[in-house]
Amino acid sequence: MPNVNRASGFKPIKHLSGATWNGQFQVMIADTNALNVGDLVKSTGTADGTTGYNVVTRITAASDTPVGVVVGRKPNPANLNLPGGLKPAGDTGANALVYVVTDPTVVYEAQANAASAIADIGLNVSPSLGSVNTTTGISAMQLDMATKATTQALTLKMVEVSQNIDMDLADSANWKINVVLNQNALANNTAGV
User: Fold this and answer.
1) Considering only CA atoms, which of 13, 47, 6 is closest in space to residue 133?
2) Whether the model pTM is above 0.85
């Protein structure tokens, strides 16, 4: 059975220790750009003047250093018809609260955007950014398999093939691969924003 082509960004699944991921996140204020659940975000280098929460934005380049992954948003009571994972452009203030996994030991599942092989595991890779999906609210970010290499500066490290029941290793397309943030703004010895 072929693997389903269903990109959904980065989904936290466990910690590097093997412990289950139990929903730990930080509340952040998002800037005026749109965001989807599963999007990699970076710090803007400032905090909100009212709440003190860090301000984040969707990464705009594969080389950006992420602080984490969006796992939800506070609903906007003025617009309850929005898709569940969408923080639309222009939502500000209390409507711009997003929940971001910032723990550097979390493992994420993401879809590869091209053919994959077992030999890819252990390599680093950049994210393929895709566009913000305003219909579903689900991220279009994937792993950019054209960038896979041993290069230390790449954003993500591929640690294993996802063990989903619907994964067909005989089909090299649309693999779901478990990754960690190889470059992380909260890891030791990184430059400030």
Assistant:
1) 6
2) yes
